[in-house]
Amino acid sequence: MHTHVPHMEVGGKYILKLNSKGSKSFIIECQSVEYSDSTDYSCWKYYNVLCTAVGKDFDLNQLSIYHGKNTYSTFCDSISLIRKDDSRLISFRVRLRDSSTPGTNELLYKNSKLCTLDSIYDGSIYINNQKEKSKRIQEEYRRKQEDYIKSITPPEHNSPEFDLLPTNIMNYIGKVTREEFEKVVGPALDDEEGFLVYEVKNKYDNVITALRCFYRESDGKLISIKFPTPHYLGYWIDFTHIEGFPKKQSIAEKKGLWVSKRDVFNEIYQVNLKFNSFGCQIMSIKRHSNYTSAVINYHVVK
Hints:
Blueprint: E1 13-17, E2 25-36, E3 42-54, E4 58-59, E5 63-67, E6 70-72, E7 81-82, E8 86-97, E9 105-109, E10 112-117, H1 124-152, E11 161-162, H2 166-169, H3 178-185, E12 190-192, E13 195-202, E14 208-215, E15 222-229, H4 232-239, H5 249-254, E16 258-262, E17 268-275, E18 278-287, E19 292-300
Parallel strand pairs: 11-13
Antiparallel strand pairs: 1-2, 2-3, 3-8, 4-7, 5-6, 5-9, 9-10, 12-13, 13-14, 14-15, 15-19, 16-17, 17-18, 18-19
């Protein structure tokens, strides 16, 4: 029996001499270790070892694992014999327990100590496994959240600033082609039943606004711009500031440049304004408890 019993470590090489000359021996080289079934107080430790029989066959049944008062075999492979001058990679396992459980793990050859093995378990493997598991769960949750946010977030678009008040739009309606208009507002983002959709940042209220535009087939001129707004009064007032538009409402109404439509409650729900060939409809006017809404439709007037 060896006077000094080495402790098995990864990378370690352990030689069991089977005769006095050393021409016959059994060599164990520890390649790696793995852990499984860890709890807060114990786990299995697997040793993956390369075994070489030198000069004679070696019966693996001569090896066993000792813990406390118990001797047992925990080889994980069906190999029981290693032929002369042959090598095999095999695995065996030992149970690591917390320090409250007495006893050490030892690899025995015919009841003689060949190597000592780890026996104490401090719970770190279980803790680390739990941390890794928690990390994986959190990462999976974060990934699903990011995927959901991406699914409901429209593609990023750097919307150009554009003045949507009547005094500016009158320079475009009936006067510019699609190519000329898109030099100002950028390319169309969509086509909805013949209406091209653009997105701009409205200089009037700093709100990102979707515009539905229509071009005349005969000459390609822009003849309609339609968009929703919560601030319709500003467009109404700005139209009356167009140079040449009557200063008095009564005169504008008499000339047919200002037409209001009312519902059964005498509330205005639409205003039609026009000046020369430029028209502005303020449609679907609604008054809510703390805000108003409407749809602006700039168009060509015949």
